[in-house]
Amino acid sequence: MVYKNKVIYLSLTGVAIISLVSFLLVSPKSGNQYASIGFSVIMLAGLCLEVIVLLVTGLILYFGGTDKSVTSARKQRANAFFLAIGLVLLVGVSLCFGGVFLYDAW
């Protein structure tokens, strides 16, 4: 499998796990009227942590190393992490707002 696909699949799996954990931590049937805010805070905190990890890893791959022969391959791997950041933000923020509206409708 292509390295870019692996990074994207693992990143989106992380978003799914963050979404499930934040849903399970704040139960909508608990009668708490602020459950949607709790869900959004936990979800956004998890997404921020994942984006920071992806950004640091991508920057290390992009600027790390002094060997000129592997620079192109290393930059392509770094670009996979930068692409994963965009997809994580797109899917994660959409899940966050969708979850908030579902909590309010529940």
In brief:
The chain is mainly α and 106 residues long. It has helices at residues 3-25, 35-63, 71-105. The radius of gyration is 17 Å and the shape is elongated.
Question: Keywords, please?
Answer:
single chain; mainly alpha; 3 helices; elongated; 106 residues
Structural topology:
Blueprint (H helix, E strand, L loop, with lengths): L2 H23 L9 H29 L7 H35 L1
Helix pairs in contact: 1-2, 1-3, 2-3
Main sheet overview: none
Class from secondary-structure proportions? mainly alpha
Oligomer: single chain
Task: Please state the CA-atom Rg, rounded to the nearest Å.
Answer: 17 Å
Total helical segments: 3
What fraction of residues sit in β-strands?
A: under 5%
The succession of helices and strands, N to C, reads HHH
User: Separation of termini?
Assistant: 41 Å
Number of strands: 0
Shape: elongated
Unreliable segments of 5+ consecutive residues: none
Q: What does the average pLDDT come to?
A: 87
Give the domain tally. Answer: 1
- Estimated helix fraction: over 70%
